[in-house]
Amino acid sequence: MPASLPPPRRVRARLRRRPAGDNSGRMVWLFDLDNTLHDASHAIFPAINRLMTAYVARVLGCDEATASRVRVDYWQRYGATLLGMIRHHGVDPADFLRAAHEFPALAGMVRVQRGLAAHLRRLPGRKLLVTNAPQDYARAVLDIAGIGHCFERVVAIEQMWVHGHLRPKPDRRMLRRLLVQARVAPHRAVLVEDTVSHLKRYAGTGIRTAWVTGYLRTMAPSRPHDVPGAPTSAQDDSSRRDAAVRSTLEAEEDRRAGHAAQEHSVTLVAAESQVPQAQSGNVPRVRARVPNRPAYVDIKVQSMHQLQRRMRRNGS
């Protein structure tokens, strides 16, 4: 083909999709999004909690104080608000996740480290984004952060169905399928996460793990939090015995049919999967006291800058 002619359309499209930065080497990075690549504890996680509570209130037709108590009950019984909403109210997971991530002012809520795009470009190896958040939200955050061009693929919760069941992180079957699709051997993959329980779940699968601690907060609103008028943590026992809440749960029990297949496989968005407990009130958030690196964590860093420097120094 003469040098003056442009490449065929299919070749041009492939070139446009090629991620920016250093894609050399055998390493494949599987990046989480919230609290890994940006500070979600600052504004996004509190907003997600408010949106979840409002969603529960709409479905149940109750006030926010009752919805907050129901959320606490579902979180304690099933490990996630979404599981309870699916089981007792026939909620569509996609609708719940979409409603929990509606941010008209998202651009003002995203906080990223200075030079994040440059650090990702310099990090050697292929890079995929793997998040339990919805696709539209994930891509919007990447665009605002200016790092969407660094990833060859975005794997959001909509792409985490395995054999007809939703299998988000930390499900091992989903990750194994993803590695097969990407033609990556487990020992070549590194999962980069802020949620240490996810890293622990994948221990023993052959993949390496990197724990990002820079955005962790001792007061991240990770669990259903109290709203004005709701009982405080000291009153949890009495709230769990609240007759109105119990009657609501019992009344909806017969609507659980048909959702048992999903209730054990759907996990909640990152806002409820963090380790630190949430508290009520206007107490300022502070940095978490991060423990030493667990045995199942191969790399522990505070930021992408630190990760990139360490990998460069090690020649990985």
From TrEMBL:
<dbReference type="InterPro" id="IPR023214">
    <property type="entry name" value="HAD_sf"/>
</dbReference>
<feature type="region of interest" description="Disordered">
    <location>
        <begin position="221"/>
        <end position="262"/>
    </location>
</feature>
<dbReference type="InterPro" id="IPR010237">
    <property type="entry name" value="Pyr-5-nucltdase"/>
</dbReference>
<protein>
    <submittedName>
        <fullName>Pyrimidine 5'-nucleotidase</fullName>
    </submittedName>
</protein>
<dbReference type="InterPro" id="IPR036412">
    <property type="entry name" value="HAD-like_sf"/>
</dbReference>
<dbReference type="InterPro" id="IPR006439">
    <property type="entry name" value="HAD-SF_hydro_IA"/>
</dbReference>
<dbReference type="Pfam" id="PF00702">
    <property type="entry name" value="Hydrolase"/>
</dbReference>
